[in-house]
Specification:
By secondary structure, the chain is an alpha+beta fold. The protein contains 20 helices and ten strands. Helix 7 packs parallel to helix 9 and helix 14 packs antiparallel against helix 15.
């Protein structure tokens, strides 16, 4: 027997005597339905087997180790992504939100198509049942669940749909999923999401990579067109939001390129920009590094324009939350006293309406006929400008602390030129030649920079390699040194 057949027998035994919630239907029919849905998207029997087994650990005495032993490592890992932490010390209704939020983090951070198809198979089977029950019972249906608030269920299903859309929007399973959401919560999604949508196909063959941002890579397609190709984990919600932010920033007076469409690039999607005879500033500096100071002034003027724009004109997130995430995900694993000090410094920053770009470096700004244009707007936020300067310090100095070649590869020009660029940028941004003042602000930016870099150290888990341990020691030493003199992040 193959792995799928063995999984059916094993799951049938484990779920024996159990019935679907609110119905006298043997539970095993649910995982069988999940596997059938998955079979409409792939021929991979290991993913189908994971569909059969996806509730074994959560609802029976089966374990991940047992599944690993019987069906292999890949099947076990797939099942693990669909297995919630039960929080047995809490009532189900109290832990519902926490369990769903944790599981969504797993889905949003995966690039594994098997995981995404498994999720869609399970959630489509669930919402089919929910939709049928809703048609019969109406709003009374919610009393059958641990979570009685229908808006919470909408949040969960909508979040799943948004996370899966970029990769699975063309499948019949996804279209049906959207239809059921719209049946229970009318108007949640536009009707075009329920129908097949053809995207123009673009190929990156022969295209030149000209920049990288937080959400994707930018390519020169031809003399007229630039493509921003989004990373695998990005959703249509991310793409649509960036388009909205770019248009809103343009209206507010920020020079930015506006996407005129979305196309497909293999299994990913890209925004299309028309930028004639334009080049990223990083590329221009790499061709003539003596021009670094010239472009540093242009960048400083652009940063000042952004930071003088009222962020209340656009619905922007508070970047402080991002900084707090750096703290909790990095220094908090190392030193409680340091954590408290940095947290207080960030907390004491005044709540402002200042717009910041959030990913401001020479790879994200194009020059077209001597005018700068931003091409990466998904990180737009509101915060005190020191948050922006922390990123700039990281791009042109911090990244090069332990390995100058890293910053050279990222920017495309030498570490020495990066330092020269940074010094000139700060002089022009702060509009002063006072070295003491520049150092004072630089120290504040550096403190946040190393806090951010500490988060990068721990981003893949608490177990550190020798290289990451070395980085941790260096960054923590710099943070402790800077905390001796930095008593406020304002300037």
């Amino acid at each position: 027997m193959n792995v799928l057949e063995r999984a059916i027998i094993y799951a049938t035994d484990k779920h024996q005597g159990v019935y679907r919630k609110g119905r006298k239907v043997p539970y095993i029919l649910h995982p069988l339905e999940v596997a059938q849905i998955i079979s409409t998207m792939t021929d991979d029997i290991e993913v189908m087997a994971a569909g059969i087994l996806h509730d074994v650990v959560e609802d029976t005495d089966g374990t991940i180790d047992e599944i690993n032993e019987k069906f292999g490592d890949r099947v076990a890992k797939l099942v693990a992504t669909e297995t919630e932490n039960k929080y047995n010390h809490l009532p189900k209704e109290e832990s519902w939100q926490m369990r769903k939020e944790e599981s969504l983090v797993v889905l949003r951070n995966t690039n594994d198509m098997g995981v995404k198809m498994l999720w869609l198979g399970d959630k489509l089977a669930n919402i089919r049942s929910l939709s049928s029950g809703y048609a019969e019972k109406g709003e009374d249906i919610w009393q059958l669940f641990h979570q009685h608030d229908p808006e919470k269920h909408l949040w969960y299903y909508k979040s799943i749909a948004e996370a899966l859309e970029l990769d699975l929007n063309r499948t019949g399973a996804y279209k049906e999923f959207i239809q059921h959401i719209n049946f229970i919560w009318p108007g949640t999604f536009t009707l075009d999401k329920e129908r097949y949508k053809e995207f123009k196909e673009y190929s990156l063959e022969g295209c030149k990579l000209i920049g990288k941002g937080a959400k994707g890579s930018v390519y020169r397609y031809n003399d007229e067109i630039i493509l921003k190709v989004y990373n695998e984990q990005n959703t249509f919600k991310d793409i649509e939001r960036e388009t909205y932010l770019a248009r809103s920033a343009f209206v507010a007076g920020i020079p930015t390129a506006i996407s005129f469409g979305i196309v497909s690039v293999g299994e990913r999607y890209a925004s299309v920009f028309e930028l004639l005879e334009s080049q990223p500033i990083s590329e221009l500096i790499s061709k003539d590094q003596s021009r670094a100071k010239y472009y540093a002034k242009i960048m400083a003027d652009l940063a000042r324009d952004i930071h003088s724009t009222d962020a209340t004109k656009i619905n922007l997130p508070d970047y402080k939350e991002e900084i707090f995430a750096w703290i909790s995900g990095g220094v908090a694993h190392e030193d409680e006293e340091v954590t408290e000090k940095i947290t207080k410094l960030v907390t004491d920053l005044p709540d402002v309406t200042t717009m910041i770009h959030g990913d401001f470096h020479t790879g994200n700004i194009m020059m077209q006929q001597n005018d700068p244009f931003l091409i990466d707007m998904d990180t737009l936020a509101r915060c005190h400008p020191i948050a922006e300067l922390a990123g700039i310090y990281m791009f042109y100095r911090g990244f090069g602390d332990l390995d100058p070649t890293f910053i050279e590869k990222f920017m495309g020009f030498s570490f020495e030129t990066c330092s020269e660029y940074y010094n000139e940028f700060m002089k022009n941004y702060l509009q002063t030649d006072d070295e003491k003042k520049i150092k004072e602000v630089t120290d504040k930016a550096a403190l946040l920079c190393y806090t951010r870099l500490m988060r990068r150290v721990y981003k893949q888990g608490l177990e550190l390699t020798e290289e990451k341990a070395k980085a941790r020691d260096h960054y923590m030493a710099r943070i402790r040194e800077l905390l001796k003199t930095v008593d406020t992040l304002e300037f």
